[in-house]
Give the backbone structure.
Amino acid sequence: GYSSPETFKFLVTEVRGGQIFKGHLKKSGIKVKLKPWSKDDFIMTTEGILEESKLISEDSYKPKKWHLSVSNEKKQKISRSVESDEFIGHGELVLVIDDNADMRKMIIKKLKSLRYKVESAVNGREGFEVAIEKMPALIIVDWIMDEMDGPTFIEKVKKNNELSSIPIVLLTAKSDAESRVMGTALGADCFLGKPFNENELAGLVRNMIKLRVNEKKVIDEKKKLGDILDNLAQGFMIIDKSGVVQEGASRGAKEIFGKEIEKKNLSSILNLESSEEELFSKWLKNIWRGSLSFNDLLPLGPKVFKTDDGRYIKLGYRPVYEENSKNNIDKVICLATDKTEEIKLERQLEHDKQRVNFITNCLQNPVEFVDLMDDSYEILEVYSEMKELDLGGLFRHFHTLKARYGQFGVRELTNYIDKIEISIEKGQLEEMDKKVYDFRLKLQDFLKKNSLIVEAANKFMVDNGQAIHISDLMDRIDKTNDIKELKFDLYKNFLLSDIQEKFKRYGSLVEELAERQGKRIETLFSGEKILVNYSKYSDFVNISVHLFRNMVDHGIETEDERVEKAKPQKGNIEVNFKNGGDSFMITLKDDGVGIDPNRIKKIAQEKGLKSKTDLEKMNDSDLLDMIFLAGFSTKDEVTDISGRGIGMDAVRESIDILGGEISISSKIDEGTTFFIKLPKVS
C-alpha cells in the first residue's frame, strides 16, 4: 500500500544509496535511522536535511501529499484508474535501467501488470547492450548509477542511428529547473521525479509509447509518400514565398536537376537571367498577396527548363493553402517532369508529318515544285549582281522564295532564308554572303536527299501532260506537215493552263497556317476556266502566296474571337475567277476583322512612310492602298508567316509587271476583298 514503510523506505534508501548526502550528513553529524517512524519525525528529518543541503533546492525533495496520507477510498480509486483500459499496454517492450533492485522490481511489476513486456539492466553499459539487442519501444533510465550513469547512457543512445528515435524517460530525484534543462539538452524526452506513484508511472509510459507509435506511423507514412514521390516520373519540391526549395524534395527532383536543390532559390536552380529572375520574384509576390487567383497567375510562372545535358523539363505548380483558408497560400508545390523523350517523339512525328506533306504537295504540284527549284538556283546565280544593284529587290525575291518553300512545308530551308532576310535588313553584307552560301549548301543537300521526289515530280509532269518527252516531240514533228499546226498543238496542250487550278494549291497552305494559329478556315474556289500561258504568270501566282498568308495571319479571327462577334467559328476565304475577253478578274475575299483606315494612318506616321500632312489629305481608299507600300505592316512582331511588310509590295510589283492592277475594299468586322485585273498575255 501507499502508506507502508516500504514505500518510504524506498525514498529514503534511494537518497542514501545514491550517495547524494553521504559526505554532507557525515560532516553535519546528522543520523538517519530506518525504523518505524511517525509522520512528523520523517517530515522534520527530511526538511532538516534539505534546509542544510546546498546541492539542490528544497522543492526537489519536498514530500508529495499523496505519500503522507492516502485514504482507503483514494487507494481504491487510484488502483481502478491505473488498471483502466486507457493505461493498458499492447505488449510493447519497455527497458528499465536502475541500479536499485527495489526500484527495478516495483517498476517491472507494475508495467507487467499493465501488459507491457519488460527488460531490465543494472547500469547504463548493460542497458545499452540490451537496447541494441531488443530494440525497446521505451527506455526508463535512472540518473545516478555507479557504472555509466543516465546522462552518459542517453548521450550514447542518441548517437546511435538505430536507437536514437527511442523515447527515454529520465528517472531522477533532481526535479529542479537546472537539472531538467541539462537532461533535455542531453536528449531525455521527459522526467519522472522521485518519489512517484503508480498512476504517474502508468500514465507516463502510456503517453510516451503512444507518442512513439504515432511518430512511427508518421515516419512510415512519410516514407511511403517519399517512396511514391521518388518513383514518380516527376520531381517534387516545395517552395516558400521567397522561392526557396524546402527540405523534403524528392529524389526525382534532385536527379532531374542534377544538383543539390534544397535550401536554394528556384531562380538559381533554373539559371534565370536577371530580367527573368525579377519576373519570377514579382510572380511569387502576387501569389502570396492573394489579390489574384492562383489559376490566373499560373501561366506567368517559369514553364520550361533546359538542362546542361540537353534535357527538356516541364514545370507545373500547385498551391497549398493555409489551414481553414481558401485564399491564403501557405506554400507552392513545384512539379518537374522530364519531357525530353516525349519532345523528341513529337519532333519526329512533326518531321514525319512535314515529310508526308512535302511529298504530297510535290506530287500534286510537280510543276510548281520544279519551278521552285529552278527559281532558287536562278536567284543564287544572280545574287552577286543583285547585291550590288538592288538590295530591296533581292530581299523581295528571297522573301517570296521563303513563302513558296513554306507552301511545301520545307522548314529546314525557310529557316535559312529567314537568316538571309535578317542580315539584309541589318545591312550586314558579309554576314549575308555567309548565310547565302549556307543556303546554297543546304539546298544541294536537300535535293540530294530528295532526288527520288524530284524524279517523281518530273514523271508526274509528263504523265499529266504538263511536259513532253523528246521522243514524243519527234513523233509529233514526223506526223505533221505544217509547222504552224505543230506550234498550235504544243501551245494548246503544253503551254496553256487554267490559272484557277494553279491557285487551288493554296487551299492546303491556308489550312496548315490556320491550324498553327488555332483557327479554322475554309478556302472556296469558284468561277470560270481561264486558259493562260502559265510561264508568263508563274511569278504572279507564286508571289500570290503573300495574299493568302496575310488573310490568315491578319484577316481571319480565332474561333473564340469569332464567337464573341456572333460569327461562325469557321472563317472563309473565297477566290473567284471571271473571264473578260482580253483580260480576266480574280477576286479574293475573307470574312475577317477588316482593315481600319485610322490604324493604317497611325502606323504610316509612326514608321515615317508618309507625313502627317499627306495623311490628313487621304481618304479611306487611299489609306487602304498603303498596305502595298514597302515596309508597311500592321503586325507588331515579325513571324515566319508575316510582319516584315514586304509581301504585299511584291504582289503589286508582280501585277504591275503583267500590266494589271489591284485594288482593295474593307469593312471593319465584315472582311476584306482584293480585286485583281490582269490582261491575257500571249
Summary: The first strand starts at residue 93 and ends at 97.
